[in-house]
Amino acid sequence: MAFEGRAKIVVPGDDPVQIQGSPELAKLEPYGDLTIYKDRPATSEEKVKRAAGATVIMNSRGSVKWREEELRQLPDLKIISLCSIGTDMIDLKAARELGIDVCNLPGRTAPVVAEHIFGMMFGLAKRTAFLTEQMRAGKWPRMNNVMLQGKTLGIIGTGNIGAEMARLARAVGMNVVAWTFNPSQERAEKLGVQYVELDELLKMSDVVSLHVAASDKTQGLVGERELSLMKPSALLVNGARGAVVDTAALVEALNSGHLGGAAVDVFEQEPPPADHPLFACEQVILTPHCADMTVEGVELLNVGVVENVIAFLEGRPQNVAN
């Protein structure tokens, strides 16, 4: 059923800039009145105050989280439209119980994200961050890098991003194995990968790349035991969520020399504290959860978040994650 009347549409915190200024916003004019807050709400109370009376929240930044106690204070809210693939910033169960649709953007920016993670893998293999830092310090280090052609990439999670990562890896001559919760021969043939058990993947891969969604099943999926199964000098790339990897175990594996390096775009706390232990590790490449932050990626998300809002208000909700 289409929404009647004009909707109140709120962007509760667009920092860093995601959707403000996008030409896509003009498409919302026939449907409702839009308010964009250009800074992040400092407190839970401020966040709820900004969204009071809203029919629609467009959550342009994952740093703005919505938990049950906050959602219960928004009786007029009907939809949260996300500028993201991930939904972990929303209490999906509470939203469902309250009749609030949560709409995400599955697959929309997969090529953009995969390209970033692929680039991080190459940068890590060629030790670009470490060698740059050494040269800035006046040093001229002599050490071997990692050749990736002919090596084995193990992909954990073969959704849209993992699938694109497999395509890119095959294009440069890597062998690709994969693990997922629900493997099938049809999916394996489509992606050009071989599905194996998780322990087998960890043992045989020269690079392990994480692309699973955040859930109770994936929290701590890679811990001390899993890291110990990996080849000495293997590389780990995390483009999933910070909680998928046990950070303390990863730091220990890096500092002990068991792993050759780690590339990380996601952290359990974002932004991470200044004393985050990964900052002290030598063979790491770190980026601030920005894999989709290209001009193309940003606009793909802006188009999608507006399309999801309009579809809902016209009575044909799409991409409902809960």
Mean pLDDT: 96
Q: CATH topology of the largest domain, which one?
A: Rossmann fold
Secondary structure: helix percent: 25-40%
Q: How much β-strand is present in the residues?
A: 15-25%
For the biggest β-sheet, the strand order reads 8-7-6-9-10-11-12
Form type:
globular
Note the main sheet. Answer: 7 strands, parallel
Order of helices and strands: EEHEHEHEHHEHEHEHEHEHEEH
Under the CATH scheme, the architecture of the largest domain is 3-Layer(aba) Sandwich
Low-confidence stretches: none
CATH class of the largest domain: Alpha Beta
Q: Which homologous superfamily in CATH is the superfamily of the largest domain?
A: NAD(P)-binding Rossmann-like Domain
Report, as a whole number of angstroms, the end-to-end distance: 18 Å
Give me the number of helical elements: 11
Notes on the structure:
This protein is of the alpha/beta class and 322 residues long. The mean pLDDT is 96. The chain is globular and about 65 Å long. The strands form two sheets. The chain has a seven-stranded parallel sheet, sandwiched between helices. It has a five-stranded parallel sheet with strand order 2-1-3-4-5. The two termini are 18 Å apart. The protein has helices spanning 44-51, 68-71, 92-97, 110-125, 128-136, 160-171, 185-191, 198-204, 224-229, 247-255, 295-313, and strands spanning 7-11, 32-36, 56-59, 79-82, 101-103, 152-156, 175-179, 194-195, 207-210, 234-238, 259-264, 284-286. 32% of the residues lie in helices and 16% in strands. The protein contains eleven helices and twelve strands. α4 crosses α6. α6 (160-171) links the parallel β6 (152-156) and β7 (175-179). The protein has two domains: 7-108 and 295-313, NAD(P)-binding Rossmann-like Domain (Rossmann fold); 110-286, NAD(P)-binding Rossmann-like Domain (Rossmann fold, 3-Layer(aba) Sandwich), CATH 3.40.50.
